[in-house]
Amino acid sequence: MEFELIAFGLITGFTSGFFGIGGGSILIPMLLVAGFAMKEAVAISIMQMVFSSIYGSFLNSKKIKGLFRDGIILGLGASLGGLFSGYFLPSIPDIYLQYLFILVLIYTVYTLFKAPASQEVVQPDKNIFLLAFIGFCVGIFAMSIGIGGSLMLLPILVQFLKYDLKIATALGLFFVIFSSIGGFISTSIYGNMLYYEGAIIGIGSLFGVYFGIKIKEKTQATSYKKFVLLLNLFVLGIMIYKTVNF
User: Fold this and answer.
1) 80, 163, 186, 223: least surrounded by Cβ within 10 Å?
2) Residue pLDDT, tens place only, 130-160
3) Angle between helix 165-189 and helix 68-88 axes, rounded to 10 deg
4) pTM
């Protein structure tokens, strides 16, 4: 099982670095197929995201200037939202969590399909209260379904706040640091964390995230958008299949 978990970590880390996501959208379906219950998969996913998001954001910060300002504001809101998620998670049936996950994926596919592959980054300072509120809302729902929040945040950054797609994914991964730490603390307090499995997958993800970021930097914008859409469609298909056969 340890080798399987390490492989899960490598795959999840690569997708985290390349797509700027926490990795829950990839890891949770794999864990479900491997026999873990939904709430167990959510707990493991949250711990993995702490590893991949911190290291991935460190690598991104070397290439992207101004990553921290909006990221910190969004992240502080997400941390508060993530803390609330541990209260909601135990009271929600597994099947409803899976339905919510599917709705998030459908929303992301639809909005990204309409968004341009590349656009000029708008740099004026955003309203800090709006950013914090967005982070709070995304943090609650993301941690309740075991994802870092980038799947929900990415279309908002690209369409509403007008960020370039690649920069938005980097900001999304930075955002995951806060939401995942908040979710980790909350899940641990309520006794739902699986530390051993989460640590193994998290360590494996460090290697994957390095290569994911390197390849993203060399990918053209139009091709990158297609990859992001394909990823979400693939995960959506897996989750629909798993839910129908729940």
Assistant:
1) 223
2) 888 888 888 777 766 666 677 778 778 877 8
3) 40
4) 0.75
pLDDT higher than 80, residue 197? yes
Quote the tokens at residue 191. 């006794």
Q: Are 148 and 175 in contact (CB under 8 A)?
A: yes
Domain ranges in the chain? 2-244
Residue keyed to tokens 């491997």: 34
Sign of CA dihedral 126, 129, 135, 137: negative
Say if residues 94 and 196 touch (Cβ distance below 8 Å).
Answer: no
**Structural contact between residues 60 and 214, judged by C-beta atoms closer than 8 angstroms:** no
Could you tell me the CA-to-CA distances from 21 to 168, 189, 191, 209, 212 in Å, in that order? 10, 25, 25, 10, 11
Residues above pLDDT 70, as percent of the chain: 88
Task: Compute φ and ψ for 14, nearest 5 degrees.
Answer: -60, -45
Kindly tell me if the per-residue pLDDT of 124 is higher than 80: no
Q: DSSP letter for 122, please.
A: P
